Amino acid sequence: MSAVDPQFAADFTDRYAPYLNPLPQVNSFREFLRFAKSTDRSGKQFRYPVQAAISHGITADRTGTTFNLNNARPGVELEAILDGTDLIMRETFPYSAMMKARNGVSLEGNAAAYWDPMDKVMMTTLRGMEFYNELMLMYGPGPTTTAQSNIGVIATTAVAAGTGPNYNSATHPIVQLKQASWAAGIWNVAGSGGGATSGMLVDIYQSDGTTLRAANIQIEGVVDASKCQVQMTGASAAAVTAGDLIMPAGFVNKTSVGVGGILPNAGTFANISATTNPFWRARTIDLGGTAMTASKFLAITAKLMSNGGENGLTAWCNPIVFSDLVDATVNNTRWNNSMGDNKVKVQGAETLQFITAIGTCTLKRHAFMKQGEMWLLEPETSMRIGASDITFRGANGNEGFFLELASQAGSEIRAMSQQAALLTVPWHNGLVTGILSPNADTSGS
After folding, report:
1. CA proximity to 226, closest of 284, 267, 276, 187
2. 311, pLDDT greater than 70
3. Most CB atoms closer than 10 Å: which of 163, 243, 347, 380?
4. DSSP sequence for 180-217
């Protein structure tokens, strides 16, 4: 702060710039997964029949006699059963803030407050709810004691030099994530903003996805995105360990399985075993640490045709992988200088489409997608089930989740959702792993 001569200090006023929110907006994978019609939403559970096998009781003969028939080999029907996950976000605000805001609000900074406290709290609550709802739909670890998915894996060199090595070390550990599991968009939203009781809390599980190593570790923020680094701290004396898995705190054994867990599933999902029913498994293709290219994409989608896919796909990838494919189209663009104005040439794309063996495939980027993966999803069979999308409405559908705090001078507001991701025909979908972009952020492992 620059100094003002004491003789004139009382003559100057403080001026404020317009309100600024630098946090990135959350992309909406939720919008892609269509929500079940209200008539199909959960009462007790969401159920639907699945044809697991067709009839095979065939008999062939050319004798022209009254030949014997082979036994019937009947078709098989299974029942898929799934329920949504309750997610609740809560936030509080004091009475004094509400009273002060009655003197006027302006985002330009020329009134008593930038925000009406109720509007501000609803905005930040909604953004928090969207963040965790998105993580649950994408990477929910599932309702079992073994996590089916995660939001990051700790790299071989677990911490940056001179930090840690334990979560409760005085020099808070700068944890390095494996580059294939790195999704910078998640961690850019997860930080604490310097608040001791703010920021995302995560649980750290050993590589088996079952054994908890450290609980309620605070995310302080991204240190160096180009090195896949996130600073963390917590009360646990456990050492930051290579190969450990990171989950949102309290999600293991409490959420539905996200798409990141449905695609590689080889066990039981929604009451049906993928071990004995191949149609319940998505096709997995490992690029073995190479870049995604247009030719590879076309070959991968062609492999899904034999699984019954024919209505096209939406492919979700990290923005860096997306840029690799856009760059390839730019390199193949040729300009015709005889076509008029040559002053401005527009190149690049926000969305790419490929005409493939299974129809039109649309490539989209998402800030929460990991660098090493691509999800190939059939839009018609990708959906959300459950009782409710994100809402501020209370039990009677009219009043908000709003309550006065019993022993504190303030109020609380809550947002809720009750839903789960569902791929109704898993083997129409694909999972690509082992993608290594030459432009990827890297931790060295």
Report:
1. 187
2. yes
3. 163
4. GG--HHHHHHH--TT-TT-S-EEEEE-TTSSSEEEEEE
Q: Which residue type, as a one-letter code, is found at position 353?
A: Q
Beta bridge partners of 422: 383
User: How far is it, in rounded angstroms, from Cα 174 to Cα 307?
Assistant: 44
Q: CA 302, CA 310: separation in Å to the nearest integer? A: 10
Using CA atoms, how far apart are residues 201 and 83, in angstroms rounded to an integer? Answer: 25
Question: Higher pLDDT residue, 78 or 20?
Answer: 78
At 299, give phi and psi (nearest 5°).
Answer: -70, -40
| Better-predicted residue by pLDDT, 444 or 182 | 182
The answer to whether 259 and 375 have CB atoms below 8 angstroms apart is: yes
Q: Which two tokens stand for residue 247?
A: 């989950």
Percent of the chain past pLDDT 90, that is, above it, reads: 64
What was the pLDDT predicted at 13? 56
User: Residue 94 has what pLDDT?
Assistant: 85
SS3 278: helix
The mean per-residue pLDDT over the stretch 277-289 comes to 95
- The b/e string for 186-219 (b: 16+ C-beta within 10 A; e otherwise) is bbbbbbbeeeeeebbbbbbbeeebeeebbbebbb
Instruction: Specify the pairing of strand 245-248 against strand 76-82.
Output: unpaired
Distance (Å, whole) CA 373 – CA 434: 7
Measured distance CA(175)–CA(156) in Å, rounded: 11
CA distance 139 to 183: 12
Give the model's pLDDT for residue 337.
58
How many C-beta atoms surround the C-beta of residue 249 within 10 A? Answer: 16
- DSSP class of 166: B
d(CA 362, CA 297): 11
The answer, yes or no, to whether residue 333 has pLDDT greater than 80, is no
Amino acid at 83: D
Domain boundaries, the chain: 27-52+78-140+255-331+347-445, 146-252
Q: Give the Cα separation of 324 and 317 in Å (integer).
A: 11
Q: What is the pTM of this model?
A: 0.87
SS3 content of the chain, % helix, strand, coil (to 5): 20, 30, 50
Do 155 and 228 contact (CB within 8 A), yes or no? yes
| Mean pLDDT, residues 338-359 | 73
d(CA 128, CA 384): 19
